[in-house]
From TrEMBL:
Biological source species: Desulfobacula toluolica (strain DSM 7467 / Tol2)
PANTHER family in the cross-refs: GALACTOKINASE-RELATED (PTHR10457:SF7), MEVALONATE KINASE/GALACTOKINASE (PTHR10457)
Domain (GHMP kinase N-terminal): residue spans on this chain: 91-170
One Pfam short name: GHMP_kinases_N
Any one GO MF annotation of this record: ATP binding
Presence of keyword Disulfide bond: no
InterPro entries attached to this UniProt entry: GHMP_kinase_C_sf, GHMP_kinase_N_dom, Ribosomal_Su5_D2-typ_SF
Name under which the protein is recorded: GHMP kinase
Keywords of this entry: ATP-binding, Kinase, Nucleotide-binding, Transferase
Coiled coil ranges: none
Length: 348
């Protein structure tokens, strides 16, 4: 479909949040189906570091994708490679048989920071195409479409917590299930009132370690060890810790939440020591010393760490983390807070 004429009339702008998480990997069917009896879940927090997408007119028969941190690419609509660095974005465009469109992506989070940016971008692009076609903006439908599109081109098993945080926003525990004919999720809001969410901002801290992550490597190690039967008991423990963590946050017992988070991080480190780089290991150790919990985001191996704890402990940790990050190029404490909104279609 040629979107050029539609977009000449009006460009489409959409944005979605990124996320930090605990219990990731359990959102992959390889894991949650064999553990369905334990009601596996993933906890995540949407952040106001939003990924914005603009659809604008381009040459008929071609699709262009541009994004900060990547070289812009233009391909004929039937020739765009899905194994390209921005292949997911071209795959989304192909779902709509789109051409005559320039997809421009602007992310407020650092590139390859393990905050779910690529999945969030896919959600934002789909929402923008829905708007261009005058389709209803259904967060659930858009999240599933983004998930299955990514899973079809990634070459590795994929979860969908990133897409759900992007589509819905907020602070949630996502419970993974199997329905009559397809997988399902249950949204369990952990914090619902604006007051609770505003206060929770004082209990979290997010740092970028300065080194971009590559999630496939570590994710593949987890998948392969689970399939071989070597780590299933560990992932059952992780499932239990995620539930306990979600309950502790809901009850505002942040010391308990910190302990559950640290136990989860240590289990991941036992399986894959590279899940934390050198800077990440220092940040984790200092968090434990400050009575806080700390965990990598996504599949780790670089990118971001986030911490949870009592407000005064997080305040102390901030200054400790800043000293560690100062000599590391590009590393920093991220200026961010919880985002309650998911998909937003912006007025031109």
């Amino acid at each position: 479909m040629n979107f050029k004429k539609i977009l000449e009339h009006q460009k489409i702008h959409a944005s979605v949040p990124c996320r930090v998480d605990l219990g990731g990997t359990l959102d992959i069917s390889t894991f949650y189906l064999p553990m369905i009896h334990r009601l596996p879940s993933t906890f995540n927090i949407a952040l106001d570091l939003r990924t914005a997408v603009c659809l604008s007119p381009w040459q008929k028969g071609y699709v262009k994708v541009s994004s900060r941190g990547f070289e812009a690419a233009v391909f004929k609509k039937d020739e765009a490679p899905f194994n390209h660095p921005m292949g997911l974005m071209f795959a989304v465009a192909k779902y709509f048989d789109a051409h005559g469109v320039h997809i421009h992506i602007e992310s407020a989070s650092p590139p390859k920071s393990a905050l779910g940016g690529s999945s969030a971008a896919a959600v934002a692009i789909i929402a923008a195409f829905f708007k261009a076609l005058a389709n209803p903006i259904d967060p659930k439908q858009i999240a599933w479409l983004a998930h299955y599109t990514e899973a079809s081109v990634a070459g590795v098993p994929c979860g969908m917590q990133d897409q759900l945080a992007a589509a819905f926003g907020g602070v949630n525990q996502w419970i993974w299930k199997m329905g009559k004919g397809s997988p399902e999720f249950e949204q369990n809001p952990v914090l619902e009132t604006n007051q609770d969410i505003e206060q929770f901002n004082l209990n979290i801290l997010i740092a970028y370690c300065g080194i971009p992550h590559v999630s496939k490597d570590i994710n593949q190690q987890w998948v392969k060890s689970f399939v071989r039967g070597e780590t299933r008991l560990i992932f059952e423990k992780i499932a239990d810790l995620t539930k306990n963590f979600s309950k502790a946050v809901k009850n505002k017992n942040f010391k308990a939440a910190a302990e559950f988070m640290n136990q989860e991080t240590k289990l991941r480190l036992e399986m894959t020591p590279d899940v934390l780089d050198n800077t990440g290991k220092k940040l984790f150790e200092k968090a434990v010393n400050c009575d806080c919990g700390a965990r990598f985001t996504g599949a780790g191996g670089g990118g971001c760490l986030w911490a949870v704890g009592e407000a005064w402990d997080i305040k102390n940790l901030r200054s400790v983390w800043q000293k560690i990050l100062e000599p590391v190029e590009a590393a920093k404490i991220l200026d961010t807070k919880i985002e309650t909104k998911g998909i937003i279609i912006h007025k031109p």
